[in-house]
């Protein structure tokens, strides 16, 4: 049942991202897309935290090293917004690290700097054992 809820949520997030992309198109800075996504998430009644700090646990020490995800949505999905020529492996690794740190299983990496947004969407899901 939880997977169904997460799939519904990621579907809504992707729908809002498509709406943002249709209105703005490619070529803006990430901050513009982030602000537009925050507006659309709020308008849709979807709870989120923006620029959520994510501490890294190393052994028994909490390292506050400035990791921040763009959006933590309903405490279940991480959304990272990009405005780049191409999503690189380092972008994917960053999202996977955010998932690992938060112990969440689903994240979205959305590159708004594409002509057709479906070509800029990467849904990442994983399970990280303790």
Inertia-based shape: globular
Give the radius of gyration: 14 Å
Number of domains: 1
Low-confidence stretches: none
Largest sheet: 5 strands, mixed
Q: List how many beta strands DSSP finds.
A: 7
Structural class: alpha+beta
Q: Could you tell me the mean pLDDT?
A: 90
Strand percentage lies at 25-35%
Question: How many separate helices?
Answer: 3
Helix/strand order, N-terminal first = HHEEEEEHEE
Helix percent band = 25-40%
What is the end-to-end distance?
Answer: 22 Å
Strand order of the largest sheet: 1-4-5-6-7
SSE topology:
Blueprint: H1 2-24, H2 30-43, E1 48-53, E2 56-58, E3 61-63, E4 68-73, E5 77-82, H3 89-102, E6 106-111, E7 121-125
Parallel strand pairs: 5-6
Antiparallel strand pairs: 1-4, 2-3, 4-5, 6-7
Describe this structure in a few short sentences.
The protein has 130 residues and is an alpha+beta fold.
Notes on the protein architecture:
The structure is a single chain. The protein has helices spanning 2-24, 30-43, 89-102, and strands at residues 48-53, 56-58, 61-63, 68-73, 77-82, 106-111, 121-125. It has 130 residues and is of the alpha+beta class. The protein has one domain. The strands form two sheets. It has a five-stranded mixed sheet, with helices on both faces. A two-stranded antiparallel sheet has the order 2-3. Helix 1 crosses helix 2. It is globular, with a radius of gyration of 14 Å.
């Amino acid at each position: 049942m939880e997977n169904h809820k997460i799939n519904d949520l990621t579907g809504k997030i992707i729908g809002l991202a498509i709406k943002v992309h249709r209105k703005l198109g490619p070529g803006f800075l990430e901050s513009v897309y982030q602000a537009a996504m925050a507006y659309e998430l709020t308008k849709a009644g979807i709870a989120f935290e923006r620029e959520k700090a994510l501490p890294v646990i190393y052994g028994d020490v909490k390292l506050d090293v400035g990791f921040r995800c763009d959006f933590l949505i309903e405490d279940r999905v991480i959304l990272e917004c990009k405005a780049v020529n191409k999503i690189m492996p380092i972008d994917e690794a960053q999202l996977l690290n955010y998932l690992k740190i938060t112990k969440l299983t689903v994240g979205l990496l959305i590159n708004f700097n594409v002509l057709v947004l479906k070509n800029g969407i990467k849904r990442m899901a994983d399970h990280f054992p303790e």
